[in-house]
Amino acid sequence: MDHQDSRSAANGAAEVGLLSGKQKANMVEGDERKENRVNLKKELGLMEGVSIIIGVIIGSGIFISPKGVLLSAGSVGLSLVIWFLCGILSALGAICYAELGTAIPKSGGDYTYIREAFGPLFAFLYLWVASVVFVPCTNAIGALTFSSYILQPFYSHCVPPDNAVRLLAAVVICFLTFLNCYNVKWTTKLQDGFMFFKIVALLFIIVTGAVFLGMGKSEHFHDPFQGSVTDPGRIALAFYSGIFSYTGWNYLNFVTEEMKNPYVNLPRAIWVSMPVITTIYLLANVGYFVLLSPYEMLSSSAVAVV
C-alpha cells in the first residue's frame, strides 16, 4: 500500500514538473514575442505635442468662420463671447480625450476607443464613414477656402464665380493627392510652409489690429452688444461656426504610443495649446473688427483679404 502511494506521489510530482516546464516554455515564448513585436518609437515630447495640436487646429476655419459667427450672433460683443466659449468647450473636450488617452495608451484615436468599447464592427464602420465622408468633406472645405482667398484679389469688386472656385479647389485636391502618393517628404515640406504662412497671416492681422486700435480706431467697439440675437437657434449656429475653427483638438490621441510619458505630456500639451489657440483666435477676431466694420465682414467670403 505504501509502495503504491509513493509511486502515485512520484508520478504526480513528475506531472507537476512537466506542467510547470510547459508553462515556463510558454512564458519564455510570450516574452520573445513581446521583444520581437514591432512598436512605435516614442519620440514625441511636450513641445512636439503642442506643435501638433496647434498645427492641426489653426487652419482655414479662422479665415472663414468669423463671418458665420457674426452673421448668427448679430453683434461684435456676442461674437467675441462665443469665440471664447467655443475655446472653453473645445478645451473641455480635449481634456476628456486626454483622460481616454491615458486610460487607453494606444494610437488610433477614435477608432481605438470605439474598438475597445464596442468591438471591431463599430470601429470598422466609424473608420469607413470617416474615410468616405468626414475626411473628404474637411479636405473639400479647406480647398474651397484656399481657392476663395486665391481668387478674391482678381475679383475685388465682386465675389469669385462658384465654378472658378470649385475648379481650382478640385485642381488643388488632385495635386495634393498626387504629391502624397509620389513623395511624402515633399508633402511634409509643403505642409510646413503652409503652416508658416498661416501663422504669419494671423500675426499680421493681430499686429495690424493692435496698431490701429492704439491709434484710436475703436468705433466698432463703442456699443459692442447692439443687435445681439436671443434666438437659441441662431446662437447654436454661431457656436457651430466657431467650433468648426477649433476642429482638431483630439488629433494628439492618434499618436499616443509615440509620445514620451503620455500620462504626463498628453494632458500638459492640451493645457498649453488650447489657451494659446483661444487667445490667438480672440486677438485675430479683435483685429478683424478693428479693421473692418460688421457690414464689410458680412459682405465678403474672404475676410482676411478685404
Structure description:
The protein is mainly α. The protein contains eleven helices and no strands. The N terminus is likely disordered.
What's this entry about, in short?
The chain is mainly alpha-helical. Helices cover 75% and strands 0% of the residues. The chain starts with a helix and ends in an 8-residue tail after the last helix.
What is the fold's blueprint, element by element?
Blueprint: H1 2-36, H2 46-57, H3 61-73, H4 76-103, H5 110-118, H6 120-151, H7 162-182, H8 184-214, H9 232-245, H10 262-291, H11 294-298
Helix pairs in contact: 2-10, 3-4, 3-9, 4-9, 4-10, 5-6, 6-7, 8-10
> How many strand segments?
0
**How much β-strand is present in the residues?**
under 5%
- Average pLDDT for all residues: 80
Low-confidence stretches: 1-20
User: Alpha-carbon distance between the termini?
Assistant: 105 Å
Question: What is the molecular shape?
Answer: globular
H/E element sequence: HHHHHHHHHHH
Summarize the amount of helix as a percent range: over 70%
Number of H/I helices: 11
User: How does the major sheet shape up?
Assistant: none
Rg (CA only): 28 Å
- Content-based structural category: mainly alpha
